Amino acid sequence: MIPRYLIDFDLAELPVIEKDVIVIGAGIAGLFTAIKASETESVLMITKKSLMDSNTRFAQGGIAAVLSDEDSPEYHLQDTLFAGAGLCDREAVEVLVHEGPEGVQHLIEMGTHFDTENGEYALTKEGAHSQRRILHANGDATGYEIVRALSEKATANPGIEIWDDHFVIDLVTEEGVCCGAIVQKPDGQKVFVRGKATVLCSGGTGQLYRYTTNPDVATGDGIAMAYRAGADIRDMEFIQFHPTSLCYPGAPRFLISEAVRGEGAVLRNIRGERFMERYHEQLELAPRDVVARAILNEIEETKSTFVYIDITHESAEMVMHRFPNIYEYCLRYGLDLTSDWIPVAPAAHYMMGGVKTDLNGETNIKRLFACGEVSSTGVHGANRLASNSLSEAVVFGKRIVERIRTLAPLTEQPQIVNEHVRTNVPMQAVVERRLKLQKVMVRYIGLLRNAEGLLKGQEELKRQLSIFQSILTKREEYEFANLLTCALLMAESALQREESRGAHYREDYPERNDAVWHKHTVLNRESDSMMKEREQHV
C-alpha cells in the first residue's frame, strides 16, 4: 500500500510560509498560470530545478489554434476528437478550440515572438490536423521561445516569488481540502507553504522509460502526490510514444518534430523502403500511435534498432530555415538533415492521462488544481493531437485563475501529525532502482502490451514497494517513490483496459471495444480500487 505521506512530520513544528496561490512547476502551464494569477493574488512558484527546465522548453512543433480564415473551431474540434479515439470530453475540446486563439494572443502580449511570413503568422500543418493551424517560433524552437518570454516576465514580476531548486514532497490536505504543500529547501530544511489555492503544473512521466524525449525532471511528481492526497487519477494507460526521436550512438533521444513529416519527410526502413502505405492511408501523417507501432514493426521485421526519416528531397534552404534547431543538433553528431537519412525510433513523449479535473482545472480535492501535462482535462482522450498541449496549458491556466479569484482565503491552520514506522535501511542505489524500473516499463508496459507481460511487470514493480517504508531525505529518493507510484498506476490501468485504443495497444485484445470500454479508467487511493467512469460527452 502506498502511504498518505512520504515523510513523517508534525505540521505545528514546521516553519509556515503564506501565499494566496502556490504554483508547483515551471513549464508553460506553471509560468502562464502564475503570471495571470499575480494580477490579483500573491504567488509562490516552486520548481525543483529552474524556470528553463521543463518539457515545454523542448517542444518543437508549435501551438495549435484556429487563426486562418480557411480554418474553423469545428474543424479543430473534429481533428481532436478523431485523434482522441472516442475518449475526449467534447465539452473540454469545445473549450480548447474556442478559447485557444485568445490564449495565443495572451502569449504574444507576454512577449512571445511567433514566426511570420509576409506580415502574417506562419502556420504549418502536423499529423492528423486537417488544416494549417500550428504557430511556431524560430522554426522549430517554439517551446524554448515561449519559456524564454514567460520566464522573463515572471522573473520581473514583483507579485511572483520564485523558488528554484526546491522539492515539493507532498500536498497537505484536511477533510478533502488542500491547504498547501510540504517543501524541502536546497539545504534540506522542510517548510509548510500554505495557500488558498494550489496548482499542480509539474509535467509528465517520461522518465518512467529509459528512452524519452522528456528532461530528467519529468518524474511524475504531481500525479503521485495528488494520488497520495486522494485525487482521482484518470487514464494512466494512455502514454504517447513519439514515433521519431533521434536514435544514434552517443546522442540523447532528441525529438525530430512531427512538423518535419508535416513538411514532406518520409519514413524508410533500413532497406530504404518507404513503408507507411502498408499501415495507414494518411501515410507519415497518421496518428502518432499508428506511426510509432508501424516503426516498431519495421524495426522487428528488419532486425534493426531504428528506421530513417528522409527529407533530402526538399530544398536545403527550406530545411535549414524551417528546422534550424534540429539541423544544428543533428550536425553535432555528424548527421546532415539536408542530405542524410536520419536514424529514428519511438520514445516516451507525453502522458495523456493524469490528475482528473473539471473544466476549471479543479480536482475532486477542493482548492487543488492541475494544469498542463499533469492534468487530465478530457481534451486529449486516448491519443493527443499534435500541438494541442501548449494550447491546453494556456486555456485551462486562465480558467484556473478565474476560479481561484472566487475562493475565500483559508481560515483555520491545519493540525496534522504524520507518524509512520520507517526504517533507515541502506537503500540499494536509487540510480540502480530507477534503471531497473525503466527496464520493466519498456519491456512490459511500453508500446505493445498483453496480460501476461503486464502482470509480470506489476509483480516486478511491487518488489520495490519497500521504498515507502524507508526514511527518505533526498530528491532522487522522492523522485523514485513518485516514479514507482506512477508505474503501478499505469500497470493497473493498462491491465484493466482489455481493448486497444489510441496509445494503449493490447496484443491480446487488438480491437477497439466501444460496447464495453467506451469509458475512462479512474484510480483513487482512498477507495483503493479502480472505478470505470463512462464517457458521456463523445
What features would you describe in this structure?
Its cofactor is FAD. One of its GO terms (cellular component) is cytoplasm. Belongs to the FAD-dependent oxidoreductase 2 family. NadB subfamily. Keywords: FAD, Flavoprotein, Oxidoreductase, Pyridine nucleotide biosynthesis. Pathway: Cofactor biosynthesis; NAD(+) biosynthesis; iminoaspartate from L-aspartate (oxidase route): step 1/1. This protein has 538 residues and is of the alpha+beta class. Among the domains are: 106 residues, Succinate dehydrogenase/fumarate reductase flavoprotein, catalytic domain (Flavocytochrome C3, Chain A, domain 1, Alpha-Beta Complex), CATH 3.90.700.10; 111 residues, Methane Monooxygenase Hydroxylase, Chain G, domain 1. The chain is built from 14 helices and 23 strands. The strands form 6 sheets. Strands 2, 3, 9, 10, 11, 12 and 19 form a 7-stranded mixed sheet that branches. Strand 11 and strand 12 form a beta hairpin. Helix 1 runs parallel beside helix 10, helix 5 crosses helix 13 and helix 12 runs antiparallel to helix 13. It is globular, with a radius of gyration of 22 Å. The two termini are 35 Å apart. The mean pLDDT is 93.
CATH superfamily assignment of the domain at 424-534? Fumarate reductase/succinate dehydrogenase flavoprotein-like, C-terminal domain
Biggest pleated sheet: 7 strands, mixed
Cα distance spanning the termini: 35 Å
CATH topology of the domain at 424-534, by name, is: Methane Monooxygenase Hydroxylase, Chain G, domain 1
Radius of gyration: 22 Å
Roughly what is the average pLDDT, rounded to an integer? 93
Low-pLDDT regions:
none
Shape verdict:
globular
Beta-strand fraction estimate: 15-25%
Alpha plus pi helix count = 14
CATH C-level class of the domain at 424-534 is Mainly Alpha
CATH architecture heading of the domain at 424-534: Up-down Bundle
